[in-house]
């Protein structure tokens, strides 16, 4: 590094031996707090952690890691001033850690601060150079060739597809769009690793093309294959399966942190489109279907355009109205099997569009998740549910209401604060709110979800384990997490009188839950004999069409009063 000498490295090694890492980290955090108006993004914190990795200071390995992390930060929208701020805070943290005991600085302390300043200056210069190099690559890509993969870019792709589509002979042309969804660990990986994977996948696919086919790199995660002069439309589907097979055999695709899903959508001209725009639109509709349904290869069909437009229309509606959603929260009763009284309810999301179309709750949640709007939707549903609890109490109906949480909610450690705030705003006692979680929501980050659940229970809220029995780890969750209620999935309840295995599962689960002091709710109760058997077993509550479907709060109040009338 220019300007950073062996003497500087020795001074910083002395600093590392005499000053605890915790003191430097605390001083760095304090400096960031004074200089940053907003909380750091996750990618920013990775950069900070690498910058504070004292044993590697000044090494080429350390600089490479910093460069890769900074390029990731840029991709995730970090401020351009991040390196300057981080480097300034590093120097200030070194100075503060040296003077923490209040003694006046000596010559050695001054040497250490100067060495830290040189190190920070070198880091800032290196990261600036990396940013400029990325800009140069992007400019070069605009000329038609991706310098990373050597493949034609989107500009060249559009030009070539239009040329083939405008041939006087109108020979059949196939188009294949292939999309790689990076694995869950990819955002934490270095840009260099993802670049290497892109390069490797591009090289592998290029080696399997027919003469005359053209493979293009049209986005960070997407390739397009133009197949002119087709003999059969089946060639495009065969090519798609071949390319996916090649990508999945890639050695780096086996790295767990980078492993992701690969999907392809195909279309053929002139059947699926007369122009380059129409053909790509068709292939993209097929690709969207492949990604949403998690199918490796989907060939275009004419109804896909209407489906895609409908999906986009729903996305626009939700994105446009998320501050004041057009949804409603309905309630489905839960019946105490011993008394027959309504002893609880589940809050369920409902949306009827202006044209009368009903949109299912899973579809709403899926779209909100794709658009990054799930936190806003959760806050809205939480507020509506707690408000409904307040209104029920005013009508003399004192029952708990359950609200479903998704995985993203359980990864938000601010959720308990939002719940507490909503309860305080509407003056609702915490035990009246039950938060339902599923095993699928727990499995991705069990430790963080456990902390959120502990905090919700500490507030006094109930926590229900929903869809119990459909996974493999449910008994461990029952043992380890502070769950107050368990819901037996309707998959077992509906056939329990016809299937001895389902009957045994229901009986075992409810007995275990009672052994842990949990309340048990059976879902999907649709006939009286099933309800009678559940009561005989000792199940506490039942929920299902035997009693009532979900209904608006305005209908729920008179229904409960009539049901619970003495």
TrEMBL record:
It comes from the Bacteria. InterPro entries: Cyclic-di-GMP_PDE-like, EAL_dom, EAL_sf, GGDEF_dom, Nucleotide_cyclase, Rev_trsase/Diguanyl_cyclase. Pfam families: EAL (PF00563), GGDEF (PF00990). Residues 311-564 form the EAL domain. SMART domains: EAL, GGDEF. This is EAL domain-containing protein. It comes from Aromatoleum toluolicum.
